[in-house]
Amino acid sequence: TVLDQYGRGSSLLVDRSEKTRVAQLYLSAAKRSLSTTFALLSASIFALQGILLLDEDHWLTDYDLALALYSTSAEAHNGCGVFDQVETCANIVFARARSFEDKLPAYFSLVQVTGTQGRLFDATNLGLDVLQKLGVLLAANPDVEAAMSAIDQTSEMLEAIPTETLIGKKMEDA
């Protein structure tokens, strides 16, 4: 493919704007691959290839691209079961993101990975921490009425947030 050729010749790319354009192509390919369950490995490779083209200044000059590549990489590696890479990308997003909302896709991937690794207590605590930062306060040992109220409050809050903000990509009709 064309991207494969760019990947093979990436060491020859010296112009920053050209690297940025190629990184955007990798992001686009990664997002398309994420929509297909069988292409998660391709998505993770495309996202990493795009990340490799970024320099430190991209977080300042091309913030949206850097954020999208790292968030997409975390999501794709989550699907592939490469948990250490999810944590690495998520931690970079946590350190560089400008707002809490920009961190949500990375938190989503990290909660999933933590639960998948059998660390359910940690995953639950992380999820509760995120909800608290979003303004949803949950009691440690709620009764049924308090639990139902919290579920309703969470549902209302989530309806106000665009899906792509929560999971880092648009949901497409199957």
What is the total tally of β strands?
Answer: 0
The mean pLDDT is: 82
Instruction: Please mark out the parts with pLDDT under 50 across 5 or more consecutive residues, or reply none.
Output: 169-174
Helix- and strand-based class?
mainly alpha
Radius of gyration: 18 Å
Hey, roughly how much beta strand do the residues contain?
A: under 5%
End-to-end gap = 25 Å
Please tell me what the overall shape is. Answer: elongated
In N-to-C order, the SSE pattern is HHHHHHHHHH
How many helical stretches? 10
What's the helical proportion of residues? over 70%
Largest sheet: none
Summarize the structure.
The chain is an all-alpha fold and 174 residues long.
